[in-house]
Amino acid sequence: MIVGKQKPLDDIWNRVKEFEKLLVFGCNTCVAVCHEGGNKEAEILASLLRMRATQENVSIDIRNSGIERQCEHEFFETAEKEIEWADAVLSIACGVGVQFMVKRYPLLRVYPGLDTTFMGDVEKPGLFTESCQACGKCILDLTAGICVMSRCAKRLLNGPCGGSTKGKCEISKEVDCAWQLVVDRLETLGNLDEFVKVIPLKDWSTNRDGGPRKLIHEDLET
Amino acid sequence: MNTKTPSKLEKILAAGHMAVTSECGPPRGSNPEAITKKAEMIRNHVDAINITDNQTSVTRLCSLAACIRLKLMGVEPVLQMVTRDRNRIALQSDILGAASFDIHNILCLTGDHQSFGDCPQGQNVHDLDSIQLIQTVRHMRDEGKFIGGDDIQRPPSMFVGAAANPFADPFHIRALRLAKKVNAGVEFIQTQCIYNLDRFEKWMEMVRDLGLTEKVFILAGLTPFKSAGMAKYMKNRVPGMDVPDEVVSRMAETPKEKQAEEGINICVESIERLKELPGVAGFHIMAIEWEEKVPEIVERTGLYPRPQVS
Question: Which terminus of chain B has fewer CB atoms gathered within 10 Å of its CB, N or C?
Answer without folding.
Answer: C
